[in-house]
Amino acid sequence: MSSLTPHQSTPFSKVLIANRGEIACRVMRSARAMGIATVAVYSDADANARHVREADEAVRIGPAAARDSYLKVDAVLDAAKRTGAGAIHPGYGFLSENADFVTACAEAGIVFIGPPASAISAMGDKSAAKARMHQAGVPLVPGYHGDDQGDELLRAEADQIGYPVLLKASAGGGGKGMRVVESSDGFQAALDGCRRESQAAFGDQRMLIEKYLTQPRHVEVQVFCDRYGNGVYLFERDCSVQRRHQKVLEEAPAPGMSEALRREMGEAAVRAAQEIGYVGAGTVEFLLDASPSSSQEQDGRFYFMEMNTRLQVEHPVTEMITGQDLVAWQLKVAMGDALPCTQDELAIRGHSFEARLYAEDPAQDFLPATGHLEHVGLDLVGAGLDPLQVRLDSGVESGDEVSMHYDPMLAKLIVHGDDRSQALATLNRALAALDVRGVVTNRAFLQRLASHPDFQAAKLDTRFIEHHHDDLFEVREPNAEDYASAALVALDQLGREGASDSPWDRHDGFRLNADYRIRVALGASRAPDAEPVIVDGSRPHDGAPWRLSIQGKTLSASLQRLNGDAVAVTLDGHRRRLLASLDGNAIVLADTQGETRLDWLRADAVDHGQHEAESTLTAPMHGTVVALLVEPGAPVEKGMPLMVMEAMKMEHTLSAPADGQVASFLFAAGDTVGQGEVLLEFTVDA
């Protein structure tokens, strides 16, 4: 890199963040630390969102749909002019990689905190970017990146490359418009689905095709450039653990990297950025061959995948291992400063992980969830965690709503340790201490990922979740101790509800001149049709422990409330610290070993009806009908796709519950439906 150039200032005192949620709050934090005022923009769905509450000023820019608000260039620019904001930070997603938006900012005299429009255009079209990288000598995965987008030609190219292949939106990112195709027979259906997703997310249906490596690692390099030709790399991140081509767990540095390979990839990433005149924060993404035949520390077989011309979701792990504030770097470079550090001044310190907390149900194919967040909390002190080693970047707080209109990510949990083993232990403890109620989340799934032996051994590739599906999606059967612990939580709740001077108003098993006696019915949340487990409890009036009878065992049991939702459960003298909470009718118990969720079948909540074969299908989420896949009256088989819904920028296919026929669809393509609404009438074959 060239020597640093003296400061040349283009100051601004107020920045508008053209985004929402976690990243908007994150940018505000660094801006405030630098004495820069902040402006939020919001849609109708976000009128009381956290990023709006935390900003110095906020401006409404349109209805809930992103296309009518966060993607409206004129509305965002009008908000900046109205508030006197001298700069706009785009965050990630939305307008962050829109070259026309960058040009519009320049024409309005507003600083865009990011690269020039020419750099975004050079890398935004993935086909053109790969051609340019090929000319620059950057290794590429075999594939097709041409302009001819005819169905037959694309299929022929895929056949020639050899299956499996990866279909990918040319203008895309974030896993949208991307699917693995295993054979020629499934190519057309995958192509149609990718085009729909790409059109919805980017307004562009062009596809590229790549050879799908069976065991690649996803390793990306954080680069930073200024306007004076200086460029550095802030080392690499491993983002191999993904679902639907979207990252779930990230870490820095990437395990198993030799210093030679780290330097080779880093220097290649800086060359790629400087080739297109890049300025600001960017990420060059590579596939690193992780197959058994590849010794990546010796031959360094890596391939350019794409460059993200913005700040990445996973940037905090880089901040943790370098001690640098990347958002502050962005603001300084946008003001005209040279880079704060040279390459020789950057060093790796320890290890960091980031876990993405989503409002989604992993057991239901990661179905997005919406609803009211009753509670969001992370008790670091109670869990014995160092606040300097654990960070929660969140866009929500207790009482907020999770909308159907946007990405379902709620927060990012970031941890640091002296080495990978220590950081991983901290991650597991922090996940156990993370308490989110009101919507289903992937927290327990993240725990199973982080504690899996192969993840702990850093045996990583981009199909990690697929390879270990049975382990990761297996729900542990509750044992007698789990049911007893849940019963204690229920009894504690009933005791608090029944705190009354009148025995007629009590619900805690009170008996006049006799021991307390009460029965608690509990059911496994994942097996709603199973017979409930009955826990019989009794205890004397003197406050002695409960005697719980369950599954042929009798236990001496007591519960002590600690800070927040933390409790100490003692069963026959064995004391355990748990995070215990009520989530609707479910009792949720969490510790470092995972999560147990049991339905509390209280007398006023028990459903005595038997589940019968479904004759209708209901919407599993709020969303939009994308396509109807069969004709009413046509015979269908169980499991056959019937219609496609879209929510939170992801597609979900609803399938036939049995052999039969669709009597009628109750909605058309393009209609918005609410969670639980009946979508179609279905007749089951006799």
From TrEMBL:
The parts of the chain that form a coiled coil are none
* Residue ranges of domain Biotin carboxylation in the record: 11-470
User: In which organism is this protein found?
Assistant: Onishia taeanensis
Which cofactors go with this protein? biotin
Lipid biosynthesis is among the record's keywords:
no
Q: In which pathway does it act?
A: Lipid metabolism; malonyl-CoA biosynthesis; malonyl-CoA from acetyl-CoA: step 1/1
Protein name from the UniProt record = Biotin carboxylase
**What keywords appear on the UniProt entry?**
ATP-binding, Biotin, Ligase, Nucleotide-binding, Transit peptide
